[in-house]
Amino acid sequence: MALKRRNIVNPSFSMSSMTDIVFLLLIFFMITSTLVSPNAIKLMLPQSTQQTSAKAVTSVSITQNLNYYIESRRVSFNQLEAALQERIGDKIDVYISLHVDENVPMKEVVKVMNIAKNNDYKVILATRAR
User: Fold this and answer.
1) What is the set of domains in the chain, with CATH numbers?
2) CA-CA distance, 85 to 9, in Å (whole number)?
3) Distances from the Cα of 95 to the Cαs of 20, 66, 81, in angstroms?
4) Which pTM was predicted?
5) Per-residue pLDDT for 44 more than 80?
6) Sheet harboring 122-125: ordered strands across?
7) What is the pLDDT of residues 83-100, one digit of tens each?
8) What gap in Å lies between CA 41 and CA 60, rounded to an integer?
9) 63: which of 21, 28, 67, 72 fits an S-S bond (Cβ 3.0–4.6 Å)?
10) Cβ(68)–Cβ(80) below 8 Å
11) Helices and strands counted in the chain (H then E)
12) Mean pLDDT in residue range 33-52
């Protein structure tokens, strides 16, 4: 008896649905990445032609009104060192990004740099591209 198989397996695979999903994910991530703002505090940073490639662990911002922020959390200057130590913990070789409005007196910037030096943190002074 010769029995004939009616179900024939097709070994081909269509990638069109997979590419549609990849393109939709690509569009989704491109749109959401433009909505993310790393620094919610608006500062007029000084201009520079040089940029650094070091990755900062946290950022300290000083506004024109001499308000201090770690990330987006406002702290007083007296609490700044303790808040930085709490944020960074026991990590070594730490970089801090310092965002300072261009109208802030240099004395205030040096105060934050002294805190960083006392705790062996490295400071990256944030600038805007020229």
Assistant:
1) 47-129 (3.30.420)
2) 64
3) 41, 22, 15
4) 0.62
5) no
6) 73-75, 68-70, 58-62, 95-100, 122-125
7) 999 999 888 888 898 989
8) 11
9) 67
10) yes
11) 3, 7
12) 65
